[in-house]
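User: quick one - fold this with zinc ion bound?
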Amino acid sequence: MHRGKVLDNANNYGIIDCEACGFIHIDPVPSKDDLDKVYREEYYRDEKPLFIQRVIEDLEWWESVYDDRLSLLESKLPDERRTMLDIGCGPGYFLKRASVRGWRCLGVEPSMQAATHARSIGVDVVNAFFDSTFPERAGRKFDAVHLSEVLEHVPDPASILKASARLLNSDGVVCCVVPNDYSPVQKVLKERLNFRAYWLAPPHHINYFTFDSLSGLLKRCGFKVIEKTSMFPIDFFLLMGDNYIGNDALGRASHLRRKMLDIMLSDPELKDFKKEMYGTMAKYGIGREMVIYGVKE
Ligand SMILES: [Zn+2]
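Assistant: Sure. Structure tokens for the protein plus zinc ion:
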């Protein structure tokens, strides 16, 4: 089954570059039952108590991030095709933004707190785990599927992507956002500045993708990769000597600075450059998160 070179160890898990899966993941892989309770009840309460509040504080920035993503999706689909499924929709602000732009939306979210919040802002949500039975239960298809910060958390990301393909109309587009780990920047931080592998977070983060490994997985799950881009490389602050690891105040300050930069770069004067810049970063494996779009083949 799972086998490959051990890259690191963290929280009693090995981190292996799995030859069977084609991407890096923790070993052993937790079972779905282990994770069920965590994401249904505990995650937003214990692991991310400030998450929803922070999204609201950061909403202007999130809307600029979502607008970039929605513009790209809209450019790949005819005007009349605007149905969206957001798998792991969290508190619902991506779908809220999409609906303002004319999309008809549905979210799936296992956390009760997050699903309740999404409903309170008018987003239609199924409070459930997304699994391979969902396409048959949904009884409808979509023009786009959004999977943000999901694939790193699940024991079998291939099954989620294959189910997403079944939920898409022909030529439908999937947008995947995951942390960019074992990146060139992290390599330099480790080798030149003695950072440990601070990005490891088992068992919550099971899988650790690179641009190449996620692109390969998308291909194996029935998608043609059509676009790769990045989110701001917040780890550049580490390269500049601002060590925010384990320092929440500095981490927040760094986040506020990248937020402001992103919002300023969204100005019509600079937004073409912004798109080009993040596309170029993706080419070099740079960016704290990667955003990869695939069209159903
Ligand atoms: Zn594996």
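One thing worth noting: The pocket of zinc ion is lined by residues 2, 18, 20-21, 25 (CB under 6 Å).
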